[in-house]
Amino acid sequence: MEAVKKPFFVLLVNLVITALLFLFNAPAYTLKYYINSVFYVVFFYLFIALMMWVIRGRFFDGITYSFRRFYNKTSKQRDYLEEWKGKPLPSETVNQSWLRMFFFQGVFMLMIMFVLLFFYYAGVAN
Question: Domain DUF3899: where (predicted)?
Fold first, then answer.
């Protein structure tokens, strides 16, 4: 939960991770390969954030409820102590603060990537 409270520290950690990806995976140390490293981190954060957003939007709740109900009806080993209706649905398990943290990190790193792309294409045009 500390990561949610200190988003700029996490952003600094992301920049360090990006630099390490660049140093260990780049065939040549150019701005192009650093932008690629930033993209990998941006893609990770935005992919996780969008998946959490879809889950939070109750997209999978009906499917999950149907599978639980079907399993309860067809299962030969009934556990009467476990109530399948009382289990939380996927949309209830997504924490809103974590969702905001992933979106913030992804969008802020995306803005950094766009600034780097501007400098890259400004240098290529000259």
Answer: 35-118
